[in-house]
Amino acid sequence: MKKLITMVSAIALSAGMAAAEPSGTFRQAHELGFGAQSSLDPISKGRVFQITEKIMSRLVRPGLDGKPQADLATSWEANEDATVWTFKLREGVMFHDGSTFEAEDVVYSLNRVLDPESDSPARSAVKMITEVKALDGMTVQITLDTPFADMPLQLMDYRLRMLNEGSGDTIAMTGNGTGPFKVEKFDAEGTTTLVANPDYWEGAPGVARMEIIGIADGQARLQALLGGQIDMERGITAQQQVMLKGSDKFNVQVIPTGNWRGLVFRTDVEPFSDIRVRQAVRMAADREELVALVLGGEGVVACDTPVEPNDQYRAALSCPQDIEKAKALLVEAGYPDGIDIDVYVATLEPTWPTLAVAYQEQAAAAGIRVNVVQAPTDGYWSEVWMKKDVAATRWNERPADQALHEIYLSTAKWNESYYKDEKLDAMLGDARRELDFNKRKAIYVAAQEHLLETAGTLIPYTVTKLIGVSSRVSNLDEVKNDAVRWHMITVE
Amino acid sequence: MLAMLLRRLFLGLVTVWIVSMIIFAGVEMLPGDSCTAFLEREAKGKLLENCREAQGLNRPAAERYFDWATSAARGDLGISANGEKSIAELVGDRLGNSLLLAACSLALGVPLAIFLGVVTGLWRDRPVDLAVSTLAIFAMTIPEFVSATVLILVFSVWLGWLPGIVLTSASAPASEFFPEIILPVLVLTMVMTAHILRMVRSSVIEVMAGDYIQMATLKGVPYWRIVFWHALPNALLPAINVVALTIAWLLGGVVVIEVVFNYPGLGRMMIDAISDRDLPVVQAIALIVATVYVCVNLSADILTMFANPRLRTLHMRRG
């Protein structure tokens, strides 16, 4: 026992020695997606996540391995059927304004997300919560309307940040959180300045200041990185990375993500209401080639599953191009001369037009004659997507359960392919109720196999993110945004 | 003269009013509104309703235009979408920055252009003319975003002498824009100088071939006296209009330059506001740009009239 204490204090001592005074400034850009409606409210559509991720904390965060890790909650446990979850909170955590983090703050923050009146986009991640209750000052109980064994995964959502009770009306400008950095000045269209929070529960951050700069133009962001005006850019394209790779002033991090782009064939209209046609149009795609042509090789082949490559529930599927089978399926479905389809794209997502044209070439061999239609970027989501029979889509990564629920459940708000399948609905319900990990995994895998059989959405790949980092930056975790420990990084 | 001025001013006001209506109708006709632009694929149900309610978008377009026009006439341009700042203040900052960019480019570009124009005009078809004119054609024809990118590459990335992108915030005082402003000013100067230079050059050539110059030469007036006393005052008249148009172009927001350099001026604000369907901001900028065009053109005409007695009397005789 004594030995243990010495060891612990030795570790604490060395940690204390390593943590020097915060110094230097780390600069990064954000793409200014929401103009004047940009906000520090983590659950507003206009949230600038490049800022909120550094100033606010969640109950549970993704560890470097992507699995749930303690953040403001130190431990959690479920009742027998996983309908009631109890979270123990971290003691001694303070908000930037000096108030103490307590159970009531969690109740407030989660109820704010769940409020049907404000209808936050983040609500769909935690819709299954029926009640949030403070058991005592440092314990919170969450009751669900369904058994859900993976509740902590949902709480890792990047928007579910803990706010101080009652701060909802001012949070958009103050950004008062418990994270490693505090807001000094918020100016979305200019430069937002953050300063180190010396009282951060994991210890004082490595850098003294962070500047998050709004630069809308992608080319300008790259120029700023090349010219040394910013230290990191998290959206380098495969073509651009050539400029960074040859230089010793930059490093490039390569990080596979669950973000995917694809084509949606609406399952409720002719000819795609015939399952054989849906199989044929997806089978005609050569996914390896699409990754090479569209992404310059920086992607991972997906077999129409929205589950990301590194997710514990990802099914190992294979989906090679099969022109002969696609032709046969079309004949069987009553289209011996092939089919003519209009595929709608927009430059909203720069890779869509390339994807559509590459697919056009591939599918032609199977008698699928694709006409690529360029729709205007403005109004794409309201006028084209979910309206036209075939349209391009894109999604950012979500936990497996959430991705499947939000896009494929019969009743889902964003069921873009109008996919209605009782078997899949049942499987998704069963998976949530199943408390044994291996059995649960088997169900999720079966659901993905079922989608490969029946879905109307072609998901050819998930994209790999390239991150350009100046060599003056050290200790930047090589993981997704969501899991980076921002307090660790240091600059020369 | 005064009557003419008043008539022009009145016509100017009418122009600005018509422009505001056209802009409003134009933005209204684009698919979607500021809420669908903001919420993207989440533009559904309660969230969309809340947003439209907050921004007053559920009222008919004519009513919204009328409200906007009456408050604008009183000088109230409304508040920004997040409700934090007045649009007048936001647009004012950007206008100031665009003015700064324009002033720097004009201060550098106009004297340079006139000097080079006179030199090339006087030494027509000599090596110096050929060299400068060729360069000018290059400067005019290479798109701004290309020359901008090349300058950034050379001066910021390779040499590291100047910052490539402007990171100063929109409300910062003018002095803080140095040295970031240098590269955009250089690019603008290149384009602008080329245009004005060619105008001045052809005008100098034309004047120098005039009868009165020949007369003066025959009378034995010294060459430089002819150039400075007789030729230049006449040769520079057409340049006034070109310079005026250049000023209007610069103040109207040099969109491409501002986007490439991330410069917080009117042009970038306009582009962002249009893609966000932020009608009040689009309207405010359109109003300013239209006013600038009207004023600059008017003052150019007046200047020309003062400089050229013939035009003055012509107007007087007419009424």
Structure overview:
The complex is a heterodimer of chains A (492) and B (319). With 492 residues, chain A is an alpha+beta fold. Helices cover 29% and strands 24% of the residues of chain A. In chain A, the strands form 6 sheets. In chain A, strands 11, 12, 13, 16 and 17 form a 5-stranded antiparallel sheet that branches. A 4-stranded mixed sheet of chain A has the order 1-10-9-8, covered by helices on one side. Chain A has a 4-stranded antiparallel sheet with strand order 4-5-7-6, with helices on one face. In chain A, a hairpin with a 5-residue loop joins strand 2 and strand 3. The N terminus of chain A is likely disordered. Chain B is mainly alpha-helical and 319 residues long. Chain B has a domain of 186 residues: Orthogonal Bundle (MetI-like fold), CATH 1.10.3720. Chain B contains 15 helices and no strands. In chain B, helix 1 runs antiparallel to helix 14. The mean pLDDT of chain B is 86. At the A-B interface, helix 6 and helix 12 of A face helix 2, helix 3, helix 7 and helix 13 of B.
Keywords for this entry:
heterodimer; A: alpha+beta; five-stranded antiparallel beta sheet; 15 helices; 19 strands; 29% helix; globular; B: 319 residues; MetI-like fold
Quick structural overview:
The complex is a heterodimer of chains A (492) and B (319). With 492 residues, chain A is an alpha+beta fold.
- How many H/I helical runs of chain B? 15
The main pleated sheet of chain B reads as: none
Q: Give average pLDDT of chain B, whole number.
A: 86
How are helices and strands ordered from N to C of chain B?
HHHHHHHHHHHHHHH
Which structural class matches the secondary elements of chain A?
Answer: alpha+beta
Number of strands of chain A: 19
Largest interface, by Cβ-Cβ below 8 angstroms: which chains and how many residues each? A-B, 42 and 47 residues
In the CATH hierarchy, the architecture of the domain at 90-275 in chain B is Orthogonal Bundle
